[in-house]
Design goal:
Blueprint (H helix, E strand, L loop, with lengths): L1 E6 L4 E8 L1 H18 L12 H31 L4 E7 L15 E9 L12 E7 L3 H14 L2 E5 L7 E8 L6 E7 L7 H5 L9 E4 L1 H4 L4 H8 L13 E12 L5 H8 L7 H36 L6 H11 L8 H23 L6 H17 L8 H11 L3 H23 L1 E7 L1 H9 L3
Parallel strand pairs: 5-11
Antiparallel strand pairs: 1-2, 2-4, 3-4, 6-10, 7-8, 7-10, 9-10
Length: about 450
Amino acid sequence: MEFTLTNLDATSARLVVKVVEADYAAQVEKTLKNFRQKANIPGFRPGMVPMGLVKKQYGTAVKAEEINKVLQQKVFEYIKENKVDMLGEPLPSAEQQSELDFVNGTEFTFEFDIALAPKFDASLSAADSLPYYRIQPTDEMIDSQVQSYAQRCGEYKQVESFENGDMLKGHLVEVAEGGVDVREAVLMPSYMKNEDQKALFAGAKVDDVVTFNPFTAYDGSEAELASLLKVEKDQVAAHNGDFTLTITEITRFVASEINQNVFDAAFGKDVVTNEADFRAKIAEQFEARFEVESDYKLLLDVRSYLKNRVGKLEFPEALLRRIMELNHEGNEPVKDEDFTKSLDELAWHLIKEQLAKQFEVKIDDNDVLAVAKAATRDQFAQYGMANIPEDLLENYAREMLKQDRTREALITRAVDVKLIAAIKGAITLNEERVSVEDFNKKVSEND
C-alpha cells in the first residue's frame, strides 16, 4: 500500500492511497472460505459448495468490504505514525476521479481530504497575569444557613395560641343537621387558599370554637377536602356549607436554639463548640463552594486571554462544514450561526488540548469519581446537609456515572478541574475579594 500526503494549503491536505492486490487478497480468500463453510445453497451439503460458485455469488461484495477494512486500518495507522495533526476524520475526496471497478480491478486508488489543525502557541507561565475573584459570603447568607441548621434540629411543641404555620387538631362538625362529624380532624390553616377563611383562625386558643367554610377555604379541592372531611371525593360537593372546629390541640414546629446539638448535627461531634466557630465554619463552606465558581470564572478569563493572544485561527471551513453535515441527523446543511459557534468552540477545544499537553493533564476513573462525589456533595449542601457519610456519597456518585451523558459531562469536568489547578499553579493570580453580586456582574462580562 502506497501513501502520498500533499498539503493543499495551511489548513488542508490530500491523502492519496494506492491499494494493490497483495494488500487484501489473503483476507478475501480467508473470508470466502468461511462463507463456503457456512453457505446454505440448495443442492449442496454444508461445506461442500464449489469455491467457484461462492466467488461468483459473494466475491465482489467480500472484495469491496475487505478492501474497505484494510484501507481504514492502514489510513489511521499512517496518520498516527506520521503524526498528522488532523481535525475530525479523513473524508473521501469530493473530487474522486473515477468509479472503482471492484469486479475486474485489482489495484485501486483512494483520495481523502484531511482538515489540518492550525498551528499556534497557547502556553502559559508566571509571566501571564490574570485576576482571581474570591467570593465572600454575606452575613445574611450565613444567618440563613444558621437558621437552616437550627430548623433541622427543631421539634414539635404543644402551644396554647395559634400562629400561622401551626397545626390544629380538634372536633370538626358540619353545621347542617346530620352532617359530617370528624372527632380527630387535623388541619393547617396556612395551607388554605382563601385568605378570609385563613384569617378566622388568627389568635385562636385551645378549647376555642372556630366556624369556617372548608369548601371555600380550600377552593373546592376534592383531594384536600376528602382528606379533611373523611369522605369520598365524589361526595365533597355535597358538604359545601359551614363547619365548626373545637380546637383540642395546637402544635408548632420550633427551631432549635443554637447549641452543641446543632453544631454536632451540622459538622460532626465536637468539630465546632461555639457559635462564633460555627459561623466561621459555615463561611468556610460557602467559600469552598464558591471556589468552584471562582475557578470557572478563571477558565473563562483564560479562554478570552488566550483567544486574544493567538488571534483568529484559520480553519478549512468548507471541509469542516462537510464533516459537520455528515455528523448531522439527516445530513442537513449547517446554519451559519451554528457553524460560527462551532468554530469558536473548536478553537477553544484546541487551546485546551494544548494546555493539557503542556501541563501533562491526565485523568483516570478515580478522578471522574471524585468529581461526581463533589457534585453530589454540593447537591446535599444545598439542603443544609454537610456531614454526609463517604459511602453514601460514593453510591450516589456511581449511580450518576451510569448515565452516559452525565458521565461524559463529568469526564469533561474532571479534565477542567485538573487543568484549572495546573493553570493556577503556573500563572500569576491577582486575587480580589468580591461580593456575590459583583462576581455575577464580572461573569456576565464574558457572555
